[in-house]
Every structure is written in C-alpha cells, then in structure tokens.
Amino acid sequence: MTSLDIDALLSNTDTEIIICTGAGGVGKTTTAAALGVRAAELGRNVCVLTIDPARRLAQAMGLTELDNTPRPVIGVSPGSLNAMMLDMKRTFDEVVEAHADPERSKQILENPFYQALSSSFAGTQEYMAMEKLGQLHQDDSPWDLIIVDTPPSRSALDFLDAPARLGSFLDGRFIRILTAPARGAGSAIGRIAALGFGIFTNVLSKILGAQVLSDIGTFVAAIDTTFGGFRERADATYELLKKPGTAFIVVAAPERDALREASFFVERLQSESMPLAGLVLNRVQEVDAGSATEEQITAAAQRLRASGESELTASLLELHAQRMALKERQKHLAARFESAHPAVPIIAVPAMAEDIHDLDGLRQIGAELADKNNDW
Amino acid sequence: MHSNQGSPSEVVLHVVSGKGGTGKTTVAAALAISLATNGHRVLLMEVEGRQGIAQLFDVPPLSYDETKVAVAPGGGEVWALAVDSEDALLDYLEMFYKMRRAGSALRKMGAIEFATTIAPGLRDVLLTGKAIEVVKRKEKNASNAYDFVVLDAPPTGRITRFLNVNSEVSGLAKVGPIKSHADSVMSVIASPLTTVHLVTLLEEMPVQETLDGIADLEANGLPVGSIFVNLMRPPKLDAHQRKAVAEHTLNTLEIERGLEAVGLNSPELIDSLEREALDHTQRVDLEARELQRLEDAQRTIVRLPLIPAGIDLGALYELAEIITNSEVTK
Which of B93, B264, B284 to mutate to test the interface with A (most CBs of A within 10 A)? Predict the structure, then answer.
C-alpha cells in the first residue's frame, strides 16, 4: 500500500489548508487536533478550526473553552497552535455586519426568518465553516496552515454540497419569484412568475402562514441589496478548496460503513479534481506478528483448556487469537478499499487503549500518523 | 426509575438515537424485530436518506411505500419505510387540504424542494409528522395499523432539536397551519406514547454524549427510555487476573509452562501476550468506569454483544432476542 507521508505534507510550506473529513464517529476531530499539534511542533503556525469538539478534546489542548476566536494552545513549539470552535450563528452575523450598514444589518439580524436560517438551517454549518476558512486564510493572517474539521453531517459529501445548496437556495429562482412583485413587473422573470405566483404563494402560505412569507420577503429584499450573490461566495470558497495548497484527508474507521462513506468521498474528490492527500485508517487493531497462525493459536488455547494445564495461558492465547481475527477482518476491508482506489495513499493509526486526555496523547497520535514504517 | 419514563406498555413510538458509529440503525432494526415477536406488526422508519435499513435487511432500496422486510418469531411482521421530506409534504397537503395534484405540479417546478428547505423546522415537522400519522393510523376495524413504530432518528447531537418541533417552528411561525401541525405532532411525542432510546459504546465520548443527550431531552420534557450499550465484549481475563496484570505480577512461569505444553513457547510470544493483557486490562477498566457513569443515570440499560462475524440478518435476530429478554419491551 502507498503510505501517506504526513510529515512531508505538514512540513511543506505550500500546504496551507488541510481538511479532515469522513463519516461521524471515526475520530475526525481528534485527528485534526493531533495534526495541528504535530504541524506546530514541526515549526508551522497553525490554526485548528473545529466544529463540535468533545469537551475532553478541548481540555486535551489545555483550553477551558473554545469559541469563535482562535485561542492559543500553550506548550507547543517551535511553531504555534491556535484552536477555535465554529459558532455558526456568530459567523453568519459577522458576514452580515461586514457587508451591510449598521441600520440594515440590524434589520436583517432581527428578522425572524434570518434568525431561523442562521441557527438551524441544515447546511448553514457547512457554509459558515467555509466562510470562516476563507476569513482565516486571508493574506495577512498570522497562520500559515489551517486545519479544518468538517461538521458531523449525515454524509461527508454534505461538506462539499451544502454551501452550494444554501447559496443556490438564497439566489434561487423561487426567492426571486417571491420578491418579484416588490421589484416591479416588466422583467421576464416577473412575467413568468406572475403565472405561477398565485398558486405558489397560496401553497406556501397554507404551509407556512402569511407572516412567515412576509418575513422571508423582507429578509431577501434586505440581503439582496447589501451584498452580492451567496452562490458566488460559496463558489469562491469552493475554488479555494481546489487550489494546490489544499489537502483533503479522509478519515475512516476500519469498518464497512465508514469505508463505504470514505469511498464515496474519495470518488467525489477525484471527479472534481480536488486535492486528496490520502486516507487515515483510524483505530486499527495491532497484533505482533508471530509465526503461529490464528487457527494454531486457537487450537492451542483449546488444548490448554481441555487439559486444565493453565487457564491463564489459555485466556491469553484466546485474547491473542481474537485480536488476530479482528485485524484480519479489518485488513480485508482495507484491501477492498485499496483495490478500488489503488492511487490513494493510506496510513493506519492503531487503536489506543485509553481515550485522549492531554497534549501528550495528541502527540502520540501525531507520531502514529507520521509513522511511515507502520506496516500494519 | 424516572417518573417520565412512562409505563412501557403504553409506548407505541420508539425513537432510536445515538452518536454516529455506535450502531443506531442496527439497534433500531433489532428492536423492531423484537417488538414484532409474537404476532405484532411493526413499522421501522428511517428519515436520513441513508438506506441503512435496506442494507441491513438485504432488500432493494426503500421507497415511500411501506414494504415488508422481515418476519419475526411467533408470526410477527416488520415493515419498513424511508421517509423523504418532499413526499411527506405532499402527504401533508393531501391530508389537510386535498391538494395532492397541485402539490405534484409544484414539485415539478422545484417548489416543494424550496418549501422544505425554506423553513428549517418544516423538514423535521414533516418527518416526525409522518411518524405520528403512522402511529395514529387505524385499520377499517378500528384497530391500529401498526402495533409499534420504530424511528431510526438523527444522531444524539441533533435529536432534541429534531423531536422538539414545536420550539423549532415557533421561532418562525407563532400561529398558522404549520404551527398547529407542530402542536399536534408534539402532543404525541411529548407523551407516554413515545420513548427515546439512546445507543452508545463504552467509550468516553459516546457515553458523555449520551448523558448530555438525556439531560437535554429531559430539560425539554421529552420522554427518555433505555440506554443500549452496543458492541460489548466480555472480558477475557477475570478480575483476579486483571489485578495481576495491572500490578505486573502475572505468573510468567505458568505462561511459559503453558506455552511449552502446546509447543508455542517463545520470548516474543510471551512478550506479546503480556502487552496485550495490559492493553486489555486498561480497556476493561475504562469500560467498567463508563458503564458505571451510565448506571448512575438510572435508566434501563440493555447490553448488546459484539457479534464477531459482523452484522447480518442472523445477527439481527440474535440481538432481537436479547432485547426481547430485557426490560425494554416488557
């Protein structure tokens, strides 16, 4: 298997953005944090943008709280490490405030439709993660490497799709239709809209109620005049992701579903010519290679149980055989992924007996991530 | 036991949530088979478009039509359904306004997608609303169409928001049709007819998320049911042996003699076995600590074993039997 060279990736000053993605529960956030620590200790000035870290992980970086501003992590050198957690509502508010004059931004921020959209629209989180990434990645930013942990979406693909979906939703023709009467008739879209408008607003007001419709209208009119198309902004960030300075790292556990998800994502990145660095196969079972096969070990354990010679040895051998079997199954799944995607570099990270509590734990994972000699 | 847990016999809607990667869909499927045991009719619903149920039962992708996917011991039936918010909206329009045809025309224009996207809470109201419709549905003879409904719901981090449709739409619509629909959905969800189960593994993060999830659900007046601890592995070493491992007083001579007897004695293997014993001991200790934290939450805990060969239809029946023998479905 082609091995993923993490240290080469992290040390290369051309690498400006790393995006960790994958199904939920595979250890994306921990991987992002471990990469951040390692990169900073290799001399990079790193900012880790996490979406929803466990409290434990924030504590592991010595941070009592993560908020929408990067906070320095103490005890990492010669580079530096900052970490922040995305506050999607706050980020959305900032976008509005940056683009509208105070009076108009107040009008937008107080609109009930805006409040619902900015705090719970499925896709806002992804959109705002990209928005924040764009902000962190400005020319004058103190960081030369930004590591992003993607939101815990239904699918890893949501990270790529959601911003465009929100963008086209806000720029879409139905929003145009809704606001068309306000813009005056005469335009082509106005005439087409007039045909469908009656039935359309009729249905919408049945579903949503007239008040909601009017809130939406006000909201759209307000944002429309203040800043350019949302779709354009989403497209611009999408382009940033395609640049050579970006590297996607797909994280998966050695399980069927997680690897299937990883496959979808890898195929998508390839079809869009997005820069894929490789796959991190997280929490794999390690077993010291011996000369005996799993069958021999299991048979020996059975003989020892039967003879009553040593229960302890029998148990230890069973434990050993169990691990060999698990590793075998995981290797089989990994091999299937590999044969489908032979060009994708992979690095396997062994399962830790205990959860991560501190920087040393993150360093240990970082070392495993960078261990090219790991021949799992 | 908590007072708002409800008498299990009243519960019709079983909502199953859990952190990603804990096996939420597997547990929902096994629970459905268990509830169907002895002649019941159960509907298993998924709402996230992942087609996880179809994969588990090895059937073609599910549609909005209810499909029979399995039979249960004693003549029960498990039916399944993948709910899509657009279909649910058309249903809603038909049910309340007899507007299916207009709805279909709008769908062609892309307006239905727009409408389900427009209101953040609307999608969830429609999805939960469909579950409530099924729960309330009657046959011609006035008996319930389904004895139980199992909902494979969004993960723990989003479950309260997903179920608490009332507060979700109230930010948007204080009055109006969608608000009254949300109210009627809520009257079933926040009632003894419903219970929310959480699936976890014995690891720190999923356990923490489960405990946070329970607190969150309770704070919002939603009925919390059982905790399913999934993928449990019985310890290979007993407490006495683990103590010796932790104190580095394992009887190396005995291990050597044992290995000698089966022709496997080598310093390398002894080394490996000792390291693995330590790793195993740490993991068992960690699992015991996490289990204790769950027990402190005073909920029924159902322990489901790791099925070494992986999850297939046979494994689902095995897990279903364990659930049947637990307190959950009694």
Answer: B264
**Cβ neighbours of residue A93 closer than 8 Å, sequence gap 6 or more:** A109, A118
Contacts of A112 in chain B (CB under 8 A): 171-172
Q: Is residue B199 part of a domain?
A: yes
Q: Do B170 and B193 belong to one domain?
A: yes
Residue B259 shares a structural domain with residue B147: no
Residue B329 lies in a domain: no
Q: Which of A25, A172, A215 sits opposite B21 (nearest CB)?
A: A25
Higher-confidence position of B301 and A182: B301
Q: What ipTM, to 2 d.p.?
A: 0.79
A343 CB-contact burial (10 Å; exposed 0-12 / middle 13-18 / buried 19+): exposed
Range of the structural domain that residue B64 is part of: 3-232+306-324
Distance from B190 to chain A by nearest Cα, in Å? 21
Q: Which helix (H) or strand (E) holds A188?
A: helix A188-208
Residues of B in contact with A117 (CB under 8 A): 120
Q: Which residues of B touch A303 (CB under 8 A)?
A: 261-262
- Give the minimum alpha-carbon distance from B204 to chain A in angstroms, rounded to a whole number: 7
In-domain check, residue B259? yes
Residues B226 and B238 in one domain: no
A176: pLDDT strictly greater than 70: no
Decide if A358 is inside a domain: no
Q: Which residues of chain B have pLDDT under 50?
A: 1-7
Same domain, B204 and B259: no
Do both B180 and B319 map to the same domain? Answer: yes
Q: Give strand pairing partners of A249.
A: A20, A278
Q: Which chain A residues in 74-113 lie under 8 Å from chain B, judged by CB atoms?
A: 112-113
Structure tokens given for B4? 């708002």
Instruction: Look up the domain containing A301 and give its range.
Output: 294-329
The residues near A163 (Cβ < 8 Å, ≥ 6 apart) are A123, A126, A127, A130, A234, A237, A238
Whether residue B251 sits in one domain with residue B193: no
Q: Chain A: nearest CA to B6, how far in angstroms? A: 30
Chain position carrying tokens 């494994």: B315
Say how far apart CA B261 and CA B254 lie, in whole Å.
11
CATH number, domain of B103, equals: 3.40.50.300
For residue A315, being part of any structural domain is answered with yes
Total domains in chain B come to: 2
Instruction: Please indicate whether residue A204 or residue B265 has the higher confidence score (pLDDT).
Output: B265
Share the mean pLDDT of chain A: 83
Number of domains chain A contains: 1
Does B266 share its domain with B135? no
pLDDT of residue B280: 93
Q: Is residue A325 part of a domain?
A: yes
Q: Is the dihedral of CA A221, A225, A226, A227 positive or negative?
A: positive
Distances (CA, A) of A42 to A6, A7, A8, A15, B60: 11, 8, 10, 13, 50
Q: Do B178 and A208 touch (CB under 8 A)?
A: yes
Phi-psi bin for B64: left (phi > 0), alpha (psi -120 to 50), beta?
alpha
Q: Does A199 contact B at CB distance below 8 Å?
A: yes
pTM for this prediction: 0.84
Chain A residues inside the 8 Å CB shell of B168: 120
Tens of pLDDT, residues A310-327: 999 999 999 999 999 999
Would you call A203 and B105 a contact, using CB atoms and an 8 Å cutoff? no
Whether A302 maps to a domain, the answer reads: yes
Judge if B132 and B276 occupy the same domain: no
Q: What is residue B7's predicted lDDT score, i.e. its pLDDT?
A: 46
pLDDT of B5 reads 42
pLDDT tens readout for residues A106-115: 888 988 778 8
